[in-house]
Amino acid sequence: MSTRKLFLIPARAGSKGLPGKNTKVLGTKPLIQYSIEFAQTCSEEGDVLCVSSNDEEVLKVCENLGVTPPFVRPEELATDTSSSMDVISHAINFYKERDVHFSEIVLLQPTSPFRLESDFRTMVELYKKSNCDMVVSVKEVKENPYFNLFKQDSEGYLKGFVDAENRVTRRQDAPSVYAYNGSIYLFNCNAFEALNGLGFEKIVKYVMPDSRSVDIDTLIDWNIAEFYLKQSNENN
């Protein structure tokens, strides 16, 4: 049975929030280069690095780094409505047709540049120790459905996400809640295919600090990333 991993970096063209962000220079290198170098550092013999993109500028960056994307992503998988599930399935099927199979997928969004190798190594250990489908990087969030998150009902009034008797009046009494930070998804390939588009049930979290949980989608996000990068450089 194969024990190789597919390091998959999805990087389509056409960002609306920050056009050209995947190849925009952050610090001294294009944004996507952070993810490519991370994958190269963390991969082992037999693992495969795949950049899935329809962006000519992304493909040029890959070429400059000596990385050859195995395909140009089909345009129907590069629209605003294209799902990550479809992009992942496309990559898996591309390799299966060439009799290349994977035990795990490591999904790395190029918009999250501040991962550490130690983050990945710890996630691998969590994956090995847990009977889970996926280990995913998260951040702890201040907004909390037990305290200060609401939804609007059919009459236009705000209602709590949980029943009144389960709500708390002090933030410190609320249980911790987490959000995917978009940095690292490590999941079982067979489980992904078996679910056929449904979400994983057995998910284990790996908590990362805010300084490594930046997910760049807008100019404000970019400015925050520059701040953390400058701070990191000054501390080294």
UniProtKB/TrEMBL annotation:
<dbReference type="GO" id="GO:0008781">
    <property type="term" value="F:N-acylneuraminate cytidylyltransferase activity"/>
</dbReference>
<dbReference type="Pfam" id="PF02348">
    <property type="entry name" value="CTP_transf_3"/>
</dbReference>
<protein>
    <submittedName>
        <fullName>Acylneuraminate cytidylyltransferase family protein</fullName>
    </submittedName>
</protein>
<dbReference type="InterPro" id="IPR029044">
    <property type="entry name" value="Nucleotide-diphossugar_trans"/>
</dbReference>
<keyword id="KW-0548">Nucleotidyltransferase</keyword>
<keyword id="KW-0808">Transferase</keyword>
<dbReference type="InterPro" id="IPR003329">
    <property type="entry name" value="Cytidylyl_trans"/>
</dbReference>
<dbReference type="InterPro" id="IPR050793">
    <property type="entry name" value="CMP-NeuNAc_synthase"/>
</dbReference>
